[in-house]
Design goal:
Largest sheet: 6 strands, antiparallel
Oligomer: single chain
Number of domains: 4
Radius of gyration: 49 Å
Shape: flat
Helix content: 40-55%
Number of strands: 26
Distance between the termini: 96 Å
Strand content: 15-25%
Number of helices: 23
CATH class of the largest domain: Alpha Beta
Length: 729
Amino acid sequence: MANHHTPIDYSYLFRSLPGRHIIVDVDDPVFTLIDENEAHARVALTTRENVVGKPFFDVFPDTSEKFKKTGVSDITESFNRVIATGKPDTMDVLKYDIKNSHGDFVERFWQVTHYPLLDEDNSTVIAILQQTEDITEHVKTEERLADTQYQLDEALAIGQIGTWAWDVQGDTVVADKNLARMFGVPVDVAASGISLETFTNAIYSEDRARVVDEIEAAVATGAAFESEYRTISTDGTIRWVIARGRISRNRKGEVVGFPGVVVDISDRKTAEQNLTFLAAASAELASSLDYTRTLHNLAHMIVREIADWCSVDILDDNGKLKQIALTHKDQSAVAWVKQLQKQQGEDRYNEDSAIGKVLATGQSEYYPYITPETPTDRSEDSRIIEKLKISSVVIAPLIVREKTVGTITFVSTEQKHHYTKSDLAMFEDLAKRISLTMTNTHFIEETRRQVVELDRLRIQLQAANEALETRVKRRTAQLEVTNLNLQRSNQELQDFAYVASHDLQEPLRKIQAFGTILQDEYAETLGEGGDYLVRMRSAAARMSTLIEDLLAFSRVTTHAKEHAEIDLTTIIGEVLEDLEARIGDTHGTVSVGKLPKIHADPMQMRQLFQNLIGNALKFHRPDIPPNVIIESTIIKPTSNSNGTYEIRVSDNGVGFDEKYLDRIFAVFQRLHGRDSYEGTGIGLAVCRKIVERHNGEITATSTPGKGSTFIIRLPIKKQEKQAAKGVPS
């Protein structure tokens, strides 16, 4: 039987490959797309039918910054390299964002490799296969690792921490840049690894043997290593450090490693030394009231501990600067110092000199780096300064009672030691302590002179206190009388309220009762007298309403209740229930917005909104249903208040002329005739009194024929501030 083979469709195989691939035509300068497999199409959100036959960059435009700036495409260059060499070309990581299923661009990074597709002779590239691998997660992981490493390096640098790893068996120490700088070793050398001896040679000679013994003990015993010591770099800089480490072993138990850290504690050590010196200086300053001798002793302490040269200069009674103390670590140099000062003469203290500036401004002069050319142009001065080896200077003011009375000068003559800002702060602290001692010395003498004066003032004060006490007693008696009168007035007001509510109302009730009987039983026989009867009953009803309104007005004060937290939305809801019949009769609507919770008298708040909403329903235009809107806002807090609630009650009623604004809140004031609108003219007066009792204010705006808006402003109390956050502002 013959063996027949069916030709294999390699295009189907290509399209089924799991990797993302496309094929481009190299004979075409625009690199026309020949094919795209399914995996690539799924990621690119394309279809083979829509991309095949189109130029590569029409389908996948180059969005790189390089192409935008130069017009040169890395992809095109990679294509050309494959064409020229006939070999695969892997590009650098390519950032190319793609759209997701929602149409939004998503950041992606790709590893792109271009493979040549050769002709039958394997001599000519006829097409290029592009393979893309999504390495976004890998790139982002590397970025996160780089960020973490950067943050760690920054943290170590800020904390002045260096790290090392000692290969004990190979005697190689690898250290980071921070430790290399502390030990004065080149960074690249430390990173590549050097012997332990090279590092220990950078330890200060007086500490070196001890530290080496401690390292050997840690290796021998396995104990944790911790040691404080000094290092000295090649430029002579001395640092204090604390080192910590521990050994590591292999599976056999052999010591193979010794990692650890070193922390620069120079600032801490300097601070400790400064505090110790300042404590000793304070003790010396407190030892005697003879500040001249004390300053001389202190200058010697300064030279022993913190400076190579110290000078104290004080203004005398004639305003001339007098040198109280001058010390130098090398006593033979004192003569050179005095010669320099003699040559400078009066110029040493003029306004252009360093000491002169300190005397004039009361501020320190700080010269961290001094050369022979720095302080003066005179060659002789420069020669002496060079002889004295001055490298750094601080001149601090001595201030007594806010007046600069002298200076203290600190000089370093070590070329490797320059005063830092920390040194400046310590010198200024010492100068302040000296100033305080000088001030106290003056105060002691002045205090003695003031003792007699204080006794005299004490006697005067006692007499004044007695007179004041008499005045206070007199004023207290007056206040007691006033309080009694006020209580009597309040009682009389309450008595009136009782009379009004009982005695005055009783005759009116009888008039109304008998009037009702006459109306019901004799209306037909009264004739024209019936009209008089109606008028009588109406007058009695108005009088009763007037008395009730007057009582309401007086109760704002006499029947006030404790303030409590109330919800204005609830209060107004109750008011609307009471006014339900009137709202229905007028076909009106009342809209209530977001209202706050406040601390207030609940009954008075109900009376306030009962009056305002009732008026809005009452004073509506004929044939136009009333529409009432109640809303609130917050006026922002100021330095003097916690803010203010502003509550507005607006209507579409008859309105009023704003020239009558002051009248409408007065008792018995009416802007409309009784025949048109009922009422006594007391309701708004009650409203004003209620608002004022709550430390607020009430006003109104209006346009005749269009409506009115009554505006109530109530201060926000401290306990209401949190709740006020939910109210519009």
